[in-house]
Amino acid sequence: MTVEQNVLQQHSQKHQQTLLNQLREVTGTTDVQLLQQALQVSNGDLVEAVAFLTEKNAKVPQQDEATYYQTAQITNDRYISVGSQADTNVIDLTGDDKDDLQRAIALSLEESNRAFRETGITDEEQAISRVLEASIAENKASLKRTHTEVWSDSPNPHERKRMENCPVGLKNVGNTCWFSAVIQSLFNLLEFQRLVLHYSPPARMQDLPRNQKEHRNLPFMQELRHLFSLLVGSKRKYVDPSGAVEILKDAFKSSESQQQDVSEFTHKLLDWLEDAFQIKAEEDREGEKPKNPMVELFYGRFLAVGVLEGKKFENTEMFGQYPLQVNGFKDLHECLEAAMIEGEIESLHSAENSAKSGQEHWFTELPPVLTFELSRFEFNQALGRPEKIHNKLEFPSMLYMDRYMDRNREITRIKREEIRRLKEHLTVLQQRLERYLSYGSGPKRFPLADVLQYAMEFASSKPVCTSPVEDIDTTAPPGGTIAQLPPPASAGEQPDACVSAEGSGSGLQASQQQQQRVSIHKPFTQSRVPPDLPMHPAPRHITEEELRVLESCLHRWRSEVENDTRDLQASISRIHRTIELMYSDKSMMQVPYRLHAVLVHEGQANAGHYWAYIYDRHHQRWMKYNDIAVTKSSWEELVRDSFGGYRNASAYCLMYIDDKKPFLIQEFDKETGQMLSGLDKLPPDLKVFVEADNKLFEREMEEWDALQARKLQQEKLALAAAAAAAAAASVAVQPMSTEPCSPDNTAPQHDPEYMEQQSPSGDSKHLQEDTERAISKAAAEHDEKSPEALLNTAMKVEYTRLLRLAQEDTPPERDYRLQHVIVFFIHNEAPKKIVERTLLMQFADRNLGFDERCKSIMKVARAKLELIKPDEVNMEEYEMWHQDYRIFRETSVFLLIGLELFMKKSFVEALMYLIYAYQYNKELLAKGPYRGHDEELIAHYRRECLLKLNEYAAALFETGEEAKVNTGLSIMNDLVVPCLPLLLVDEMEEKDMVAVEDMRNRWCSYLGQEMEPNLQEKLTDFLPKLLDCSTEIKSFHEPPKLPSYSTLELFERFGRVMTSLTMGRTPADGR
């Protein structure tokens, strides 16, 4: 076949695929063979094909639900493509007039065909166009916003600098996280990376492109090369993909907006790349059948073996991304088994020709990169909208494809038949076990072993001779004591079975002896029933012989039931194990595929966020690519986010690579075989491009550093001027001191504010009273001691008092750490030298007192401070401990004000105080468990505050009033959304993650509701920000300014707040 014939055949195949897509959308039929039959009968006339299917569908049951993203299997020799989405303009034809239906179909087809003839662009491509337009519009609109976006670029370029050996991220330029997820997955396929980087445009590219395909694909290919080269060698933490997105936007013209599906975009991207490489391949291999590297990398072949209306057939088809249904399956192998078998295929294995139809798929050739599309969206006919399937679906890190290969067809059929037989036997065993575990004929059922146990307990209970209502005294006053009167004996009752007031003791003794005779296992409780509770039901009359026979039977039956149950459970476990190991022999483990990338979606069908987990073979670890954030991850995190069933996040695209083809993920030069890294991997033109961009970034950092240096110099000059002015003013008003002052005496003047103040008020006054009290107590014990001895005794007295406070087991409302820094030090085992110097500082306070005894002690203390040598006390360590205490006090103030505002329901004002209280407290607790406050308490109120704000903002949005809607969204954008990464960063905190899911679900619930177009637009703009799973905090509010509290005031106010919390519900109990 010549090159021209090959091109014509490919064009014909694509045109046939377009007709199939249009026919599927109009009729809703997903059976590929039926669609092809309709086209053959109608000779390509769509109107006649629709009429044929309409009559056919009247006889054949229709599929009861349509999928949101439909997948078509093409019977040509090229690929399986993803069908276009249904048109958003729905025509409601509920009448019975068939002519109206035909006219509507004809009109729809005519418009679709006219658009294709005029532009050469299919509906599928137009759908992608609408998304790209929306992305660019979002990017441009973001430049006009006045408030700071949480993902805005940091003005400091050093914060945007790439860390050594860290992968480069991709900036989200407006709802393009789907683009980032796909591009990063493909970029980390090093063979694909090499193909793109070393792609050289055809020689005729300098001329005007021959057709629209070349005009579109070749510039896009060049832009993709630039993007890949930056991902390889850029010094930036993340790069901007706007160039590639702009090319995509220019390729299609549309103004509508919709959410883009990753699998559809991946297919279209590979289709474009295939076309670009096809142009190059045709130029390089004139006269030969060109080899397309994209086809060789991503496309495989399968053999379709089936029966259609009693006639057998075999077709070989190509496939790219292989579609799999998720609903109803627990793991990937179950999905594959279901996808490989369609319809009833018994006739395939029998010599008889029956009228049943069905087919099997057997892979004849697997691609090096095997991609599975997991269909996690379905169309809800009742609600008229697509919905996401959140079911759990497990998939392995190593997938063996042997059982699906054509060469293993016979052995696989034998194993499938064996598994089918085992599952039938398993079903019978499970039904039998269920009868043992759910015994009974009514709505409430119980395990049979427990039923027998209950019967044994009933028979063994104390016999009574009264009716259950005769021993209740209805004349007794409520809450009074009911006297136990002997019940009247009837003629038929046995005297020894009656219980009287006098014989209650003997009756109790007999009952205890009876219980000792039969040891009964109680499955739910072993505790004795309190005597004041109503009596247990018990038999009226039972003889010893009857009880002995009954106990013997019940014991034997219960033992038999337990043995049967164990045998059934063991048999079921053995069958499960046999099924699991059915394909574990070496002959069925020769085609290994290793998981390379998982593309994850979080959200609902109409909106959400995308990211990717990609395996780094070089470092043997998983990496999470979430737009600009690229972080280390783990298989456990991947499982939690990708399997589904836990949150709104789940995988819907899996990329496996042939484990026997290491060239897919190894960095080497194909020509020389040398290992390459960094800029060495780039061809010369791209190396120049990346180096130029790196120089621009380096210049930006240099300019930033120069600007900061100028600002710092200006601040220093301003501070120096202010200090000089203050010193001049101080000299002018300060009287001359008559006492000599040592130069070293300046050090104590800079001690913490909670140790010494300029006036005897506030902290200093409180501290001064404690100090004077210690001095008085020391003087009372030793009247004749020198000032130095008094100082030593007073320090011991004060330290003893503080030690006693530190050792008290006090509730949060009496936190003595707030009263004195030394209590904080004792709690945290500060070094002895730090404690001694701090205590000495307390007695060296100039405001200590005005009597001679206190003055003399103060002078001795200051002299001791001056005598302390630098090697005796590490001043850096000393300052560090006092800095920690200052942070502890600030944390306490943040928490105090935040809780006060929260209790006043001032949630907007309370949020920042609680946020910073948690952050500061977390830093303190990282150094020791007693350096901060209860982390669960702060986390609870931080979480509750965000939930309250979310509810308030949602209520404002529900009003539909423009002003209130804007206020609600402003609260979310400015307060709630920036705080979500703080809750997600510690993924071990389950309650925080549940709270985030609650907030997201609240807003996602609006997607299916009818609302005004402007509200829908605002919601669509807001949801991607809310659903962004990035844990990187990109910009945040400055901490609020704190008021100054004295030690006593802070202690008392903090105690009052904690008392109020204690009187209410316990915060640490959670939501």
Automatic annotation (TrEMBL):
Keywords: Coiled coil, Cytoplasm, Hydrolase, Isopeptide bond, Nucleus, Phosphoprotein, Protease, Repeat, Thiol protease, Ubl conjugation, Ubl conjugation pathway. The muscle-specific isoform (USP25m) may have a role in the regulation of muscular differentiation and function. It catalyses: Thiol-dependent hydrolysis of ester, thioester, amide, peptide and isopeptide bonds formed by the C-terminal Gly of ubiquitin (a 76-residue protein attached to proteins as an intracellular targeting signal). Homotetramer, inhibited form. Homodimer, active form. Interacts with ACTA1 (via its C-terminus); the interaction occurs for all isoforms but is strongest for isoform USP25m in muscle differentiating cells. Interacts (isoform USP25m only) with MYBPC1; the interaction prevents proteasomal degradation of MYBPC1. Interacts (isoform USP25m only) with FLNC (via filament repeats 17-18, 20-21 and 24). Interacts with GAPDH. Interacts with SUMO3; the interaction sumoylates efficiently USP25. Interacts with SUMO2; the interaction sumoylates efficiently USP25. PROSITE patterns: UIM, USP_1, USP_2, USP_3. The gene is usp25. Its main location: cytoplasm. GO terms for molecular function: cysteine-type deubiquitinase activity. GO terms for cellular component: cytoplasm; nucleus. Belongs to the peptidase C19 family. Pfam families: UBA_8 (PF22566), UCH (PF00443), USP_UIM_N (PF21909). Its EC number is 3.4.19.12. One of its GO terms (biological process) is protein deubiquitination. This is Ubiquitin carboxyl-terminal hydrolase 25. It comes from the Eukaryota. InterPro entries: Papain-like_cys_pep_sf, Peptidase_C19, Peptidase_C19_UCH, UBA-like_sf, UBA_8, UIM_dom, USP, USP25/28_UIM. It is found in: Cytoplasm; Nucleus.
